[in-house]
Amino acid sequence: xxxxxxxxxxxxxxxxxxxxxxxxxxxxxxxxxxxxxxxxxxxxxxxxxxxxxxxxxxxxxxxxxxxxxxxxxxxxxxxxxxxxxxxxxxxxxxxxxxxxxxxxxxxxxxxxxxxxxxxxxxxxxxxxxxxxxxxxxxxxxxxxxxxxxxxxxxxxxxxxxxxxxxxxxxxxxxxxxxxxxxxxxxxx
Length: 188
What we know:
Layout: E1 2-6, H1 8-13, H2 15-27, H3 40-55, E2 59-66, E3 69-77, E4 87-95, H4 104-118, E5 123-129, H5 133-140, E6 144-154, E7 160-167
Parallel strand pairs: 4-5
Antiparallel strand pairs: 1-2, 2-3, 3-4, 5-7, 6-7
Helix pairs in contact: 2-3
């Protein structure tokens, strides 16, 4: 299995296959921003809309490939505000049902964390449905639970569910007084 980053043109070219992964994830009950049943056209359009953010450097997308088939993905969303360039949001970590149980989620998470460090990010953060299988992954890889927001988002079947916020300190970039140190590196 290989993991590689998609630039904007590659993201556009992979939108159909990424839509299949998104639909599979939603059908399996993951609360990742969509209600079931997820329309294929809407899923493809959603991925195509991400290409602009990728081209502008506001989003980095990686895919896991089994052969030439996409079976997983993860993204980092970078904020544009000058006072928040030390952090990034980990978004849309998805593994196809057929590829689960092989450590792929952990591998994608590691790729995103390593990329965060390489680009000067010291504080990745995320939210995930409370009591979801993803919570075990985040806790077991050193992410810190920051809190729970009740009724944050609807699950794919439309039921309001709480979300848990997580963060993880990675790399360097904060001195002993908590001040940022050289975190304005390129995000490539």
